[in-house]
Amino acid sequence: MKTTGEWLNEEIGPRLSDQLEVRGIDRRSFIKFAAAITAAMGLPVGMAGRVMAAIENESARPAVIWLHFQECTGCTESLLRATHPTLETLILDMVSLDYSETLLAAAGHQAEAALADSIQANDGRFILVVEGSVPTADRGNFCKVAGQTPQQMLHRIAPHAAAAIAIGSCASWGGVQSAAPNPTGAVGLAEALKLEGITKADGSALPVINLPGCPASPYNFLQTVLYYLTMQQLPELDVKGRPKFAYGRLIHENCERRPHFDAGRFAKEFGDEGHRKGWCLYKLGCKGPETFANCPAIEFGDVGGNTWPVGIGHPCFGCAEHGVGFHKALHEQADVETVTPPSMFPGVTTEHGGGMTAAAAALAGAVAGGAAVYALGAHDKLKRAEGADTTQQD
Ligand code: SF4
Fold first, then answer.
1. What is the rounded CA–CA span in Å between residue 345 and residue 145?
2. Of 53, 73, 88, at which residue does a domain stop?
3. How far is the CA of 286 from the centre of ligand 1 (A)?
């Protein structure tokens, strides 16, 4: 029976290898990456070939119009700073980025002409990406681009889009600008479309995919676009409009400090013994128990080494969860939905059978439907091991 690597080699052929070499990406790393990201999208890993084919299919590249409203550009910065395997190259190669106020070489009237041309040429087919919240107070006058408020821009552009992605917490539900007293009346994209009565040109609702996070994970953006390209449909969303493959589980359920929570071992002050030993940060205000996101699996900054807030000793801020991040105080303790460990979790104490092994943790993740996030975790371990193990075959 062929391994996934052998099958992908045959499916993809030499063309991708050439492209990858030009980009300075090792082919073996890329195949591993594709397999992991396919699993992370909740798709069978056997579909990795289709995912890679979707990346290669130049004729299927969707036009993207990327708007910036009230925000810090952190989501774009986060995307551009990703490095493995040159994630920003992948994303920018997969789409035709026709308009982005941050990345456009053009300026002024030329930029506006590029926007108008793309809307006309891709009417009903382009993806609208919005970064930043929409001010509803003072008729939106807190934010203007080329003399237009976000509302005016949305009226002009959104009806012609096929779908919209609200990247980051600001675009998803208002983010930091919506913190009390919310002077600009900041709301997310979906809410703004509703308030303004903006629909697609045929009167149907414009689908909006929310990718909250401050910043949003570039991997979640990549996976969302890849899912759309591969399956020709939008991923399954939860009640808050988030892709279930990325936001289906509480951070608390996949946190590496969870065994300490279950055993009652907590850091009580920054720098105390529990904090130095890596115990649970719940009593320091960690919002992991009420925040749905895949941060423990995909981490941040693309540098490995367990780099996500809890991983480096800071309580989760709840930035991805509406009503938690920027709304609850840092020190305020989270509402805990899962006080006791789920019954399918492996034991966490050594006297009951030797403690939690990696295999048990993986099994627990798979049983609980968390195979996707464990897959990405496994990919991260592969990344770290790559330097030491260059002889192993796929
Ligand atoms: Fe991890 Fe926070 Fe949950 Fe503790 S409370 S296990 S640090 S997510």
1. 51
2. 53
3. 6
